[in-house]
Structure formats: C-alpha cells, structure tokens
Task: inverse folding
C-alpha cells in the first residue's frame, strides 16, 4: 500500500459519523451507513413508484422491469414457501429483504461507496428478524405442535435423543449461517477488490515493476464482475433461505 | 435486540486477539479504526436504529402501497387473459351450437321439401288419374252412343234394303212377265228365299 497513503483494505468498512444524534438516550447518529440505508430504501421505493405510476395493461419499459422483479420474487416465494394465499402473505417481507440486500450490495460495488451489508450487525439483525418471524408465526399457527419440527417423523424412538439435539442445533445455526454468509461474502469480496486494486498503484510506483501493473488491473476487473454476480446471488440466497425457513413456520412438522 | 449485541460481543473478543487487527491499528493509528470496523460495538446502536427505521419504512411501503399496485396490474392482466380465453371458448361453443342448429334446420328443410314434393306428386298423379278416368268414361259413352247410332243406321239401311229388294223384285217381275205382283206376295217370296 505504498501509494495508498494509508488506505487499508478494511478502512472502507469504517463508519463515519456525520451528525451525532441521541434522542431519549438512544444513539441514532447519522453515519455513512445511515445514508446508504436511506438511499437504498429510497431507490427501491422510487423505482417501484415511478415504474407503476401510470401502470397500464401493456407495460412500458420500467413497468415490465418492475413486474419482472415482482414475478421473480413471487416465483421464489411460490416455489420455496407456499403456493397458497397464506404463503403469499410473506411476499412483502421476502421482497423487502431481497430488494434491500440487493440494492445495498450493488450500491456497495460503486467505488468509494459504503456497503451496508458488509457489517455483521446488519446481516445478523436481518437474519434474527427472519428467525423471529419463523418462531412467532410457527407458534401462532401450530401452537406447541410447532415443536414437532425438532422431532423427525418415522424415526425409531431410541434414535430421538440423538436426532432431536441435532435438529435443534441445525435450527439454531440457521440465523448464524444466514447472517455470516452474507456478511462474509460482502466483506471478503470488497477486501479482495481493494487489495488487488491497491497492487496496481503499488506496482506503478515500483519503477520497472510497473510493466506488471496490468495484471492486477485485469484481475480487479474480473473480480468486479464476479462480485456483481455475488452481490445478486447473495441477495437471492438470502431470499430463498428466508422462504425455506418460513415454509417450516407455515407447514409445521414435515 | 439484546441478543445480536451479545452474540456480536462474543465475536469481537477473539477478533481483537488476532494479530492482524493489531497491526492495522499500529499502522494507521486512527482512534476510530482501533477495532476491525464491522466488529466495532460502538457503531451497532446507530446501525440497528437506522436499519429498523429504514427497513420498517421499506416493509410498510412495500406491503401497503407499492407491491399491491404491481400485484393488481399483474392480476388484472392475468384476469383479462383468463376472461378473454373464457369468452373465446364461450363463443366457440356458441358457434358450434349455431352450426348444429343450422344443420338441423337444413335436414328438417330437406325432409320437408321431400315430403312436399312427394305429396304434390301424389296429388298431381291422383288428379291425372281422376281426369283420365273421367275422359275415359266420357269417351266410352261417346263410343257407345256412336255404336248405337251405327247399329240404328245399319238397321235402317237393312230395312231399306228389304224395301228396295221388294220394289226391285216387283219391277223385275213386271218387266219380265208383264204381270203386277202385290207387295205382300213378293215379301213372302223373299222371306221364303231368305229362309232357305
């Protein structure tokens, strides 16, 4: 990082406080993360609003894009959660998660922009929100019978002392894997991009070695393409897993 | 919201123990980046508050305003296509029914026409027969009448012949013998000849 002037690959994840703000003793300071959350939500709302503002039976360009995204998420919910009206109740929730993560991921791909989803506290909060929804809806829908989720059916009873703890552990690890998967993907991708992009500058400042500088540049370009794919894929994976977990809440023991 | 903080706190401790984080701290010396930023607990509060606010707003907007609009357009299109297809099906059934009715009517009309033609033909034939019979009867009467008249004429002619014969015989006898023979004698003589 000789030419980087102290730009560490992890500095892009630092939060900068723009305005300290503590109503009722709660720290609600406006940071760069706040800005990008607001911008993400603003983009989603503005896009859907303008795309459907003069909606017609024969869609225009923006409207067909909005409908395409809608059908994509609705199809994910139908396939992974439930086909019925009950399953479609969760469409706004899944759509909100998918669009928020997707737009936040893509915004983060713009150089110099902050990636909201590269912070474990954000991904963990979203994952816990999913699991809390699963638990609350599952118990409200099936009562105590929802606990049968941890008891695999058709298994000899002497195996249950082994299988039930395994089922519980796998259930508890769901929010962990859900949050860490997204966080780690975003974090690692951005660090890798920053490091390889930094190599370009380092090599350019290293005399004869500057002839090698196109190599990390090409790699950075390739990585950017990969990261764009990852940005979409992680949002999709988050939405699909949310649907799969919510499917347990809707269908109960399987 | 106590759970994520606690969980994150557990992650922070080992992360701080890692040597590379320490190096980063030494290298830059910024107070703000003393910890690895994603594990900096002091940033959790504001992030969670703003996530709750923005994500809550997003969920509210999506579920109340934005998605229902998309859903209604998609639904109305699907509904339109469904109703169009149903109407096409309905019209097709109607066409089939009309076609069947037409064919039925055609068959009935043909049968009727055949019936009318047959009855007309029969009527004409009967009329012709009747007329022919009448004409035949008339002709037969005429023929009979004519035959009667012929027979009458024949009789008259024949009786005239016997008168002529009597006169001739009387004239012949008078010429040959010079005697006058009475008509009754001649008639009896002729009758005698005739009887032979």
Result:
């Amino acid at each position: 990082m000789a030419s980087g002037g102290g730009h560490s690959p992890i500095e892009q994840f630092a939060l900068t406080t723009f305005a300290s703000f503590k109503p009722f003793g709660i720290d609600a300071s406006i940071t760069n993360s706040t800005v990008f959350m607001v911008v993400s939500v603003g983009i989603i709302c503005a896009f859907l609003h303008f795309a459907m503002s003069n909606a017609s039976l024969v869609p225009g360009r923006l409207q067909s894009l909005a409908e395409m995204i809608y059908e994509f998420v609705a199809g994910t919910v139908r396939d992974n959660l439930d086909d019925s009206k009950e399953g479609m109740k969760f469409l706004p929730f899944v759509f909100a998660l998918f669009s928020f993560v997707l737009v936040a991921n893509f915004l983060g791909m713009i150089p110099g922009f902050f990636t909201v989803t590269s912070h474990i506290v954000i991904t963990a909060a979203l994952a816990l929100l999913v699991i809390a929804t699963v638990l609350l809806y599952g118990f409200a829908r099936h009562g105590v019978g929802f606990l049968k989720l941890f008891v695999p059916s058709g298994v000899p009873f002497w195996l249950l002392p082994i299988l039930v703890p395994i089922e519980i552990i796998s259930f508890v690890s769901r929010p962990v894997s859900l949050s860490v998967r997204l966080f780690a993907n975003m974090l690692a991708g951005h660090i890798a991009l920053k490091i390889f992009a930094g190599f370009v500058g380092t090599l350019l400042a290293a005399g004869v070695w500057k002839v090698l500088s196109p190599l990390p540049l090409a790699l950075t370009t390739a990585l950017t393409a990969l990261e764009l794919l990852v940005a979409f894929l992680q949002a999709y994976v988050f939405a699909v897993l949310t649907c799969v977990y919510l499917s347990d809440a809707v269908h109960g023991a399987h | 919201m106590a759970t994520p903080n606690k969980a994150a706190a557990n992650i922070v401790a080992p992360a701080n123990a890692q040597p590379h984080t320490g190096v980063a701290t030494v290298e830059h010396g910024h107070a703000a980046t003393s910890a690895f930023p994603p594990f900096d607990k002091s940033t959790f509060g504001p992030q969670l508050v703003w996530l709750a606010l923005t994500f809550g707003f997003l969920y509210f907007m999506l579920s109340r305003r934005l998605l229902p609009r998309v859903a209604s357009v998609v639904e109305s299109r699907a509904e339109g296509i469904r109703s169009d297809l149903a109407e096409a099906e309905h019209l097709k059934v109607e066409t089939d029914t009309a076609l069947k009715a037409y064919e039925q009517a055609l068959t009935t009309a043909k049968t009727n026409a055949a019936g009318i033609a047959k009855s007309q033909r029969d009527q004409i034939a009967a009329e012709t027969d009747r007329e022919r019979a009448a004409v035949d009867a008339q002709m037969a009467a005429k023929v009979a009448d004519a035959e009667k008249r012929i027979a009458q004429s024949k009789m008259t002619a024949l009786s005239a012949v016997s008168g002529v014969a009597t006169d001739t015989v009387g004239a012949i006898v008078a010429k040959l013998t010079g005697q006058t023979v009475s008509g009754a004698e001649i008639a009896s003589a002729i009758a005698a000849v005739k009887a032979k």
Helices of chain B lie at 2-17, 19-28, 44-177, 183-195. Chain B touches chain A through 45 residues (CB under 8 Å).
